[in-house]
Every structure is written in C-alpha cells, then in structure tokens.
Amino acid sequence: MIKNPELLNNFEDSFMENEGKLPFDRAIKLFTSIWNEGLKFGELPSKDPLEGIDVDIRIAHEKSARFYARSWFYNPHFYTTSSS
Question: pTM of the predicted model, to two decimals?
C-alpha cells in the first residue's frame, strides 16, 4: 500500500526528467527486487489483499489523469488542426 502518494509522484516526476522511460527489462528486475525485499521482511504477500484498495484506486486514477494531461500538453499534434 502506498503511504505517501505525494512522495511517490515527486520521485516519478524526477525519475522521468533525469532517466526517461524505464526499459521493460529494468522494470522487471526492479519489481523482482522489491518483491523479494517484501518477502524477506514478511510484508508480502499481504494478509488482507484488499486493505487500502480505496487509496490505491484513487492514486491510480490521479496518476492516469496526470499521464493523459501530460500527453495532451506535450503532444504537438493536439495543437495542429488538419482539414482532411
């Protein structure tokens, strides 16, 4: 469960500015490392998988909205009109 969504958003924004999009193989390696860390500390798998789902859904919705807002803002095709 994400406990500090603002910290996560700041990290993601900073990462995207500095590193760009994460390649799939690095993303899988990172996910596997985090999952193994959670197993080692006894935090994964969660005893109640639906605990905090409402917060996760809200954060996912906000991230999705931010992604589409950024896509619209940075995509030059949205500013051009075609008469075809």
Answer: 0.46
